[in-house]
Amino acid sequence: MKVLLTGGTGLVGRGVLKALVAHGHEVTALVRSDASAATVAQAGATPLLGDITDVAWLTGQLRQVDGAVHAATTGEGDAVAFDRGVASAAAEAFAGTGKPYVHTGGAWVWGQGADVREDQPFDAPQITAWRADVEKVALTIDGARGTVVAPGIVYGYGTGIPQVLVQGPVVDGALTLVGDGSQHWTTVHSDDLGELYVRVLEDGAAGDYYIGASGQNPTVRELGEAAARGRGLSGAVVAEPVEASRERLGAAFADALLLDQQTSAAKSKALGWTPAGPSLVDELASGSYAS
User: Where is the NAD(P)-binding domain (predicted)?
Assistant: First the structure.
């Protein structure tokens, strides 16, 4: 199908673009610079330079395609208005068409848990508390197939949230953790996540969430030890008091990283999705994050 993709050069979007092209979809990638246009063209998409915040213009572009995936982030500015604008454009363009629209959320909205699921109540930390109202726009498009993919902590290509661990302070040869390191993180490689987006675009049920996580839920201590080895240290780590983590990283971000969250992502895997990428532990110790 003809698919409009936003955010095709970001950590999430690059995996989505790669998977869409691999599955034979014709991708138009909305970009904001000539450099990004060159990047998505090299990956097999047709670049479209434009202002994603111009809702009327975006609505017109969406009317020309068979489906859309929104994987862009603001980078700066009001994330709520940004995401609401894109979802509203999709609602206007796709209403009554039966076309699929995949919106990007995040697994943090379910808070802590030993196996968080899409059907449990939200318990979002402050940093993502705004998501539910915006995502309701995407999930309730009349006569279309709106869905939300909610990734865990996305990794790969040496970038993203795992850099927080890699770039942590070193104290007496030990890498500083976020908190005491006992908390688990839900994780997913960018390339695996892209495959899930394609599954959801093609077969996802209207109005449904799909957690994007591999089912590997390492502790931050395990990740920190891997990051320390990747930096050429001995693998030693040191715990950080919660208040110190909040001061260093900002309270809202730190509180999300301190969540003890695990998931099996059973609903997503029921679509036939089989994550196969390297683990975050391996990526930190000897992969794209290692120096």
Answer: 7-94
From the list 230, 96, 262, the residue with the least C-alpha distance to 162 is 230
Amino acid at 164: V
Helix (H) or strand (E) holding 266: helix 266-269
Q: What tokens does 186 get?
A: 């839900």
H or E segment and range at residue 166: helix 163-166
Picking from 214, 236, 223, the residue whose alpha carbon sits closest to that of residue 290 is: 223
**Whether the model pTM is above 0.85:** yes
Per-residue model confidence as pLDDT tens digits over 156-203: 999 999 999 999 999 999 999 999 999 999 999 999 999 999 999 999
Pairing between strand 170-171 and 100-104? unpaired
d(CA 94, CA 243): 46
CA neighbor of 45 nearest in space, from 194, 192, 147: 194
How many Cα atoms within 13 Å fall on the side-chain side of residue 209? 25
Strand-pair partners of 219 = 184
